[in-house]
Amino acid sequence: MSGSKCIKGNSHSKARTSPYPGSKVERSQVPNEKVGWLVEWQDYNPVEYTAVSVLAGPMWADPQISETNFSPKFNEKDGHVERKSKNGLYEIQNGRPRNPAGRTGLVGRGLLGRWGPNHAADPIITRWKKNNSGNKITHPVSGKHILQFVAIKRKDCGEWAIPGGMVDPGEKISAALKREFGEEALNSLQKSSAEKIEIEKQLHRLFSQDHLVIYKGYVDDPRNTDNAWVETEAVNYHDETGEIMDSITLEAGDDAGKVKWVDISDKLKLYASHSQFIKLVAEKRDAHWSEESEAGCHGS
């Protein structure tokens, strides 16, 4: 898919930042030239860290590798848990999966529940920006129509993001995309039964339309470690006329502090690899992105 290599080819940087999210843990520093596992580095000494919330053994988390009754089937479907990577086979060393993008300066799982890939779903809901007369607004410099998407402000780090989240065991990606959007952008978890039924009807209209799979694979996420990482499927659902989303009231819920429609452009500063996904949507929809002529591939 166009654009995928752009994301994959970058030497992951957010996955090497310190302190590790939600902690004071400092990663061992990994210079760009030593990220790849093929580069020999005998003195590599990563910090070990798995958050207390993960070690407590919630439903969404694996046990520690050392536990005798835990024998995960890596690189395959393991009961209801999907341990296959969207980027192909990953290596196992000393019983632990190895991050396919390279070293991060930290071993263990950090805040992530699963050893190996932790699968997420990112629904990108878009509409055209319109004036009071209902006509699409054109950007004065690029001459292209301006696209808007639904963004949430994450409670954990305060950054604006796509309203996505982790796929539950056994859950289809399509169901996870719809559920996450409902929970984070419509506050569906706090609604009455009657309100939930109405939201479900509206979401069905939106999510049963043609859609574009924007990206599948590894995400440069600040929660990643040498043994656990986030992978996502980012999917664009576009409301061409705006009628569906006009009837839906945005309301932040679950992990979201705020929610709003945001104009798409290269000036956006978003969480993890989200800016790159949004750029791909703008390209696919032939919408405004930059005031400069397109040149090469820019990171977020």
* End-to-end C-alpha gap: 19 Å
Largest sheet: 7 strands, mixed
Question: Approximately how much beta-strand content do the residues carry?
Answer: 15-25%
Order of secondary-structure elements: HEHEEEEEEEEEHHEEHEH
Overall 3D shape? globular
CATH-assigned fold name of the domain at 119-285: Nucleoside Triphosphate Pyrophosphohydrolase
How helical, in percent, are the residues? 10-25%
Q: Please count the helical segments.
A: 6
User: Taking all residues together, what is the mean pLDDT?
Assistant: 89
CATH architecture of the domain at 119-285: Alpha-Beta Complex
Gyration radius, in Å: 20 Å
CATH superfamily of the domain at 119-285: Nucleoside Triphosphate Pyrophosphohydrolase
Region (Disordered): 1-29
Subunit structure: Monomer. Interacts with GLOD4.
GO molecular function: ADP-ribose diphosphatase activity
Function: Hydrolyzes ADP-ribose (ADPR) to AMP and ribose 5'-phosphate.
How is this structure best described in words?
The chain has a domain at 119-285: Nucleoside Triphosphate Pyrophosphohydrolase, CATH 3.90.79. It has 300 residues and is α+β, with helices and mostly antiparallel strands. The protein has helices at residues 4-9, 52-55, 173-185, 193-207, 243-246, 274-284; strands at 47-50, 77-78, 81-82, 92-93, 96-97, 106-110, 116-128, 147-154, 160-161, 165-166, 211-218, 228-238, 256-263. It starts with a helix and ends in a 16-residue tail after the last helix. A hairpin with a 5-residue loop joins strand 8 and strand 9. The strands form four sheets. Strands 7, 8, 9, 10, 11, 12 and 13 form a seven-stranded mixed β-sheet that branches.
